[in-house]
Amino acid sequence: MKIVLALILGFGFGFILQKVGAATPRKIVDMLRLKDLHLMKAILLGIGSSSLVLFLLLALGLIDPGHLSVKSSYVGVIVGGLILGLGWAIAGFCPGTGLVGLGAGRRDALFFVAGGLLGAWLYILRHGQLQTTFLFQELGGKATLATTGNPKFTALLPGLPPLLIAGGIAVVFIIIAWKLPDKT
After folding, report:
1. pLDDT digit string (tens) for 10-23?
2. In terms of DSSP H, where are the helices of the chain?
């Protein structure tokens, strides 16, 4: 049943990405250049509304906080994020939008996805050597802004209700999405 739900959610997410133009490199590059903010509005609205729903369901006890996962932060995560951002700006795709572009039949997405798979394969081959470098130096462990109900994670703001923190951030994202112009 989990795989069916994952497929339904994945197809739904891909459909929405296609509809908002996230599978079009020109739209992504224009967003990164702050020329066309339509896609940024969609991203902020998606993050804000999904965060609000997630923390509301957590507060109501409908989601088990044990299912939440927080990854440790490493120097390599920062370096990898910079590489991903550079690739995103150059190619006009991120991993998710690259797959959507591939599904839409874009040939440039085929090269992007193939390059991503090649990079992942090379990383796997060198992972053992990279583990001994500064890239795997931990930067503070596993922490969240709000208490999640999972004792494995340190909350940076433990005295405040998680729904207030997450809900506040979510509402700010939604307001920004609503107020941003489509074009600059």
Report:
1. 889 889 888 888 88
2. 2-19, 25-32, 38-59, 75-91, 95-103, 107-130, 162-179
